[in-house]
Specification:
The complex is a heterodimer of chains A (about 100) and B (about 550).
Chain A: H1 3-12, H2 14-47, H3 49-53, H4 65-102
Chain B: H1 2-12, H2 16-24, H3 35-58, H4 62-67, H5 74-85, H6 88-101, H7 103-113, H8 115-130, H9 135-139, H10 145-179, H11 183-231, H12 236-246, H13 263-277, H14 281-284, H15 293-324, H16 345-394, H17 401-425, H18 433-455, H19 461-481, H20 483-487, H21 503-519, H22 524-531, H23 533-542
Helix pairs in contact in B: 2-6, 2-10, 3-11, 3-16, 5-11, 5-15, 6-7, 6-15, 6-16, 7-15, 8-13, 8-15, 8-23, 10-11, 10-16, 10-17, 10-18, 10-19, 11-15, 11-16, 11-17, 12-15, 13-18, 15-16, 16-17, 18-19, 18-21, 19-21
């Protein structure tokens, strides 16, 4: 198999360009959600720690910090799940089609 | 008092391993020999040596040796990655941090977790599609083989060396505490076992040791967390309310404390944790042990789940220790301090909820954890020397598999001896800075080269070399000038560089160098390297031409 030529051919395929753009947008979107959520959390802690120390309900013991922290852990897990779901399904299917097309 | 707490908290923040290093650097009190723990540990050794023997039979090529022939599934690899992350020090260190400062422990563990989604979104599949054995394969894919491999092998070895020393010293102290063994005996034992796993069993054995340990640790920690919740009838409000009532800091344990005090340090630490993870050689090599990009993605998903679950458990365990350990006279010495230091609270809690038998189990798991982590490090170091330096640089890719294997095994042996010697040499040194340094170097040398080589067409060998070296040098220099080394180790009065984490500055230096010396590179070879970006890009996106699983 002459990979070099196949690579060129795939690169020229508009479906490949479309796949790369779509997957790239999706990956960066999720990455930015994660980064914004994490750094927002850190900056709240650095500048206004009392916000997270406030109780959830008047006189209650559980503070806002607990759901915020656990929320970040769950967010990490959920976002990775969403990405894997789409990448291993839709994106991999398109990839396989592009490869098959190029190797005909 | 407050400023002292801030310093202590900031010191702790560099990493869980650092934490244990921090607390375990002083003289520890040798405990009476713990026979239950020793018997359980011997069972673990016998069982894992059996696996090593089985793995040794299957290791017929370098691909088997370095990557288990790509035969690991996404789920197994996820557990192994989680195992690399859940070191003994992070188990003991984070639960201790929750025990002393409450909520800060959660902030700290979140920093370690959030790097994983980013690795998945931006790197995992490209790494798997481009790489063969080491991350230098990816970094040097279209760049000058010799200089880039030498630089990234140096980056790997620096990271491995500092990480390994920190683990060895931590191991020696911990084993002294848990088993009542002599420091010297403990360090030699860890070194010898590490060499056995890696030299005979390669990646296959190293991965299975890591998986078994991860399952044992997760089960043990789950049991402890459940027992804590049973003691409060599964009522979280009661758990927190009782802890607040008992704890000296009262309500403060439910809110952020002094962990993140100034924004620059906070951001720098966040970057070291997030991008350092994406530059750790022993983590990156795990992406080559699965068959394809699909499995690589799955492994990050499972790893994120297990690591997140583990951090939630340590949070409950830390609060449980406030309820069940701090109130029990058995775990305190005459002055009212925790026996063995606060890093021991999870161990004491094990005894409180499960008696002597469970204490033995958790101690044995802690030891197994150290072993599994050092084995992974040794394998990463050995592959950097044998695959990158020997086979690809010295022999210019013409080494036979037998020659490469021979060098790998000798390197493993040498690393084992070195680890033992350094472990003994650093027994009474302040090693708190080492893991922080390893993360900073990974974030500012390995990661930028790797990332740009995959994402930026215009990167050239010259740019990568100068930028990477700048990142490495800045990280080393700023660490030496920072309070953790300049004041704490070298005992100067005031640090020249005021922040504890150099990652922010070293990463800027590295990326600036990579960018500037690449765009100004007008040489012929640079043009060829840019030209080679297209085939690399197609392969990284589609996996076409990637090394697949080896059939057995």
């Amino acid at each position: 198999m002459n990979n070099e030529n196949v690579y060129r051919q795939i690169y020229a395929n508009p479906r490949f360009q479309e796949l790369v753009a779509k997957r790239g947008r999706f990956a960066w979107l999720l990455a930015i959600i994660m980064l914004v959520a994490y750094y927002a959390f850190i900056l709240v802690i650095a500048f206004d720690p009392k916000l997270l120390g406030a109780p959830l309900s008047e006189g209650g013991i559980i503070t806002w910090g607990i759901p915020a922290g656990l929320g970040l852990i769950f967010l990490s897990f959920i976002l990775t799940g969403i990405y894997v779901q789409r990448a291993n399904g839709e994106f991999d299917r398109i990839t396989q089609e592009i490869i098959n097309e190029a190797q005909k | 008092m407050i400023s002292r707490f801030l310093t202590a908290a900031a010191l702790m923040a560099a990493s869980p391993m650092l934490l244990a290093g921090e607390a375990l650097t002083g003289a520890v009190q040798k405990q009476p020999t713990n026979w239950t723990a020793i018997i359980m540990f011997v069972v673990f050794i016998v069982f894992t040596m059996g696996i090593t023997k089985w793995a040794a039979k299957r290791n017929t090529s370098t691909a088997d040796y370095y990557t288990a022939g790509g035969s690991i599934t996404g789920f197994q690899n996820g557990l192994a990655i989680a195992g690399d992350y859940m070191s003994a020090a992070s188990f003991l260190g984070i639960s201790a941090l929750v025990f002393t400062s409450g909520y800060d422990g959660l902030i700290y563990s979140i920093g370690f977790l959030v790097g994983w989604p980013l690795i998945l979104f931006l790197m995992a599949e490209r790494l798997r599609n481009l790489g063969k054995f080491t991350f230098s394969d990816v970094a040097s894919y279209r760049l000058g083989q010799t200089p880039i491999r030498v630089l990234s092998a140096c980056g790997s070895l620096v990271v491995v060396a500092f990480y390994l020393i920190a683990q060895m010293v931590g191991a020696g102290k911990l084993i002294q505490l848990l088993f009542g063994l002599d420091y010297m005996v403990a360090v030699i034992l860890v070194g010898v076992l590490m060499v056995c796993y890696v030299m005979f069993g390669g990646m296959l054995a190293t991965t299975w040791v890591q998986i078994i340990k991860a399952v044992l640790l997760l089960s043990g920690a789950s049991f402890m967390a459940i027992m804590v919740l049973v003691s409060v009838n599964f009522d979280f409000s009661k758990l927190f309310a009782d802890a607040v009532a008992l704890h000296a800091k009262k309500e403060a344990i439910m809110a952020p404390g002094g962990l993140v005090s100034d924004p620059i340090s906070a951001i720098s630490l966040g970057m070291a944790l997030m991008f350092g993870t994406a530059g750790l050689p022993h983590i990156l090599m795990r992406f080559f042990t699965v068959s394809d990009a699909k499995e690589a993605r799955k492994s990050v998903f499972y790893a994120t789940g297990f690591i997140g679950y583990f951090y939630i458990l340590t949070f409950i365990i830390g609060f449980g220790a406030i309820l069940l350990v701090s109130t029990n006279a058995e775990f305190k010495d005459a002055t009212g301090a925790i026996v063995g230091g606060t890093n021991m609270v999870a161990i004491h809690l094990a005894k409180a909820v499960g008696g002597n038998l469970f204490l033995g189990f958790i101690s044995a798991v802690a030891f197994a954890t150290i072993l599994a982590v050092v084995a992974g490090l040794a394998l990463a170091g050995a592959s950097a020397v044998a695959h990158d330096l020997y086979a690809c640089v010295i022999k210019q890719g013409k080494a036979t598999e037998e020659q490469e294997m021979k060098v790998t095994k000798r390197t493993t042996l040498a690393l084992g001896v070195l680890a033992i010697v350094l472990g003994i040499a650093f027994e009474n040194q302040n090693i708190a800075f080492m893991v922080g340094l390893a993360f900073s170097v990974a974030a500012s040398c390995n990661f930028p080269i790797l990332f740009l080589s995959m994402y930026w067409k215009n990167l050239t060998t010259r740019g990568a070399l100068i930028g990477g070296a700048l990142g490495l040098a800045t990280a080393l220099l700023l660490t030496i000038l920072s309070p953790t080394v300049w004041v704490d180790v070298l005992h100067f009065k005031e640090a020249i560089f005021p922040y504890k984490y150099p990652a922010l500055f070293a990463m800027i230096a590295s990326f600036a160098g990579l960018w500037f010396f690449s765009i100004t590179d007008k040489s012929k070879s640079a043009a060829e390297e840019r030209e080679r970006f297209f085939p690399q890009f197609v392969r990284s996106q589609t996996g076409l031409g990637a090394t697949g699983a080896v059939a057995h």
